[in-house]
Write a structure and sequence with these properties.
Bound molecules: uridine 5'-triphosphate
Distance between the termini: 51 Å
Helix content: 25-40%
CATH superfamily of the largest domain: Spore Coat Polysaccharide Biosynthesis Protein SpsA, Chain A
Strand content: 15-25%
CATH topology of the largest domain: Spore Coat Polysaccharide Biosynthesis Protein SpsA, Chain A
Length: 481
């Protein structure tokens, strides 16, 4: 542990002495914890972020000059070359058979919109059995390991707040049949919240208001935790990145992996076509030869609505936060200095979010703010894209890869996600000749659930279905375990 006198002195020098305002009243254990939290903080980084992102002096602002829509590989049904897609798939399958690929889930978010008590990955999502998100991914990963004859490693990034509960959940469920030696948990980093004057906020007399540093913090966390070394030792150079809240995702997708490895890409991303101009997604753009994602809140509405000569949206490629990362690229990004403007080198920028941050006043009394009282700093993983060599963007269909659970009700809720899973099962069945009654949106009338252990994508489902003789009727419901 760092010497407490030194830590306190450094905070005082940085004008952050308020962090220790109640230090003398604390029990020795609480003092030790507070010093440990404080020692995690890079005071120069906080000062720089406050200067650039909060007060605005020296802020570079977002550069939107020379922006154009990013090119992507269209799917065969949208004009892509079927032979190139087939080749990519074969290359991805070879990489999987060679054991080069690991799954990577970012599960460190706070999930405030869903309002669920517990790690988001433990939230029940499937239509009949209510399997938790983690189980859906575990079974897809397990089944892919069997299909390609190489069990996969799975890296899971947690937060300080949910790490112990996540590990306990997996242990309690027997790791869902995965080899526990291949499931690796590690915590992401934390950042302190500051008030609008740049002062670090206390959550209580004995704790700093710390929160996860964003999914972009995953690159640093992969490095710091030893996960990258582990990958190197296992011969893994390719990480399939996905979010914990999207059970539809093809988390092990041979074609995607293949495009990535064949092109020697350092970071690849899946693109969905925007459903309408104003859809709130990140937009894939290109700027002076670099690929980047511009958030809907940053791209002027006129550009979001721009159409080409045929009437098609120009900025049509939306991000669904599904990526493939090269191991050495992650290492390079993780070790680059953070928080600088992009022009000065390969650095992940921080973003500012104004939030209501529970804190205490100068007398130590609790404050539950009614409006934003401070700022949190987060990194976003897509900000690594401009620094990647040979990046590849490929089109995917939303129905095959994206139906997140973000909100308790309405858009992107458990209900919409269950329905999208049921539509997917119905499509797989119909594609294999089964009779399935659906409404105009493709939602089946019958209750259907397909376990990923039976089939986790179109191909694996088709193979398993063909082996059933006779195939079961769907009309009264179907539960394929
Ligand atoms: P979201 O941006 O949806 O945030 O995260 P969230 O924290 O889960 O939910 P809200 O906004 O509080 O309602 C997208 C993905 O990134 C992960 C989340 O776990 C989710 O898989 N994430 C987000 C992290 O791993 N760490 C973070 O610091 C933030």
């Amino acid at each position: 542990m760092k010497n407490s006198t030194d830590v306190i002195a450094s905070f005082q020098r940085a004008g952050q002495g308020q962090v220790f305002a109640f230090f003398d009243q604390l029990a020795p254990d609480a003092q030790r914890r507070l010093i440990e939290e404080a020692a995690e903080i890079d005071l120069a980084e906080i000062e720089r972020l406050h200067r650039t992102l909060v007060t605005g002096h020296g802020a570079t602002g977002l550069d939107l000059t020379d922006l154009a829509p990013a090119p992507y590989e269209p799917r065969p049904e949208h004009g892509g070359d079927p032979a190139a897609w087939a080749q990519a798939k074969a290359a991805g399958e070879a990489a999987l058979r060679a054991g080069r690929v690991a799954a990577f889930t970012v599960a460190g978010g706070q999930g405030t919109r869903l309002g669920y008590d517990g790690p988001k990955g433990t939230f029940p999502v499937t239509p009949i059995h209510g399997k938790p998100l983690f189980q859906v991914f575990a079974e897809k990963i397990r089944a892919a390991g069997v299909r390609y004859g190489r069990p996969l490693h799975w890296f899971i990034m947690t937060s300080h707040a949910n790490h112990a509960a996540t590990e306990a959940f997996f242990a309690g469920q027997g790791y869902f049949g995965l080899d526990r030696g291949r499931v690796h948990f590690f915590r992401q980093g934390r950042m302190p919240a500051v008030d609008f004057n740049g002062k670090i906020l206390l959550e209580s007399k004995e704790a700093i208001a710390l929160s996860p540093d964003g999914h972009g913090g995953s690159l640093r966390a992969l490095d710091r935790s030893g996960a990258l070394d582990r990958m190197a030792a296992e011969g893994i150079d390719t990480l399939s990145y996905f979010q914990v809240d999207n059970p539809l995702v093809r988390c092990i997708d041979p074609a995607f992996i293949g495009w990535h490895v064949q092109r020697k890409s350092e970071m690849s991303s899946k693109v969905v076509l925007k459903a309408y101009a104003e859809e709130k997604v990140g937009h894939f753009c290109v700027q002076r030869g670099r690929r980047l994602v511009i958030e809907y809140s940053d791209l002027p509405m006129a550009q979001q609505r721009e159409t080409d000569a045929t009437g098609r949206l120009r900025y049509i490629g939306g991000s669904i936060a599904v990526h493939i990362l090269d191991r050495d690229f992650v290492r390079r990004m993780a070790r680059a200095p953070v928080g600088q403007d992009q022009a000065s080198g390969p650095a992940m920028p921080f973003h500012r979010a104004d939030k209501k941050i529970p804190t205490i006043d100068r007398n130590g009394a609790e404050v539950k703010p009614a409006k934003a009282n401070g700022v949190k700093f987060e990194m976003f993983v897509f900000d690594a894209l401009p620094f990647a060599r040979h990046p590849v963007l490929i089109e995917t269909l939303r129905q095959d890869d994206f139906s997140p659970v973000k909100n308790a009700e309405g858009l992107d809720s458990p209900q919409t996600c269950r329905d999208d899973q049921r539509r997917q099962f119905a499509r797989w069945l119909q594609a294999n000749g089964a009779e399935v009654e659906t409404d105009a949106t493709g939602l089946p009338a019958a209750k259907i659930e397909v376990s990923p252990l039976f089939g986790y994508d179109e191909d694996s489902f088709a193979d398993a279905w063909k082996k059933l003789s006779p195939t079961p009727p769907v009309r009264d419901g179907l539960d394929l375990a």
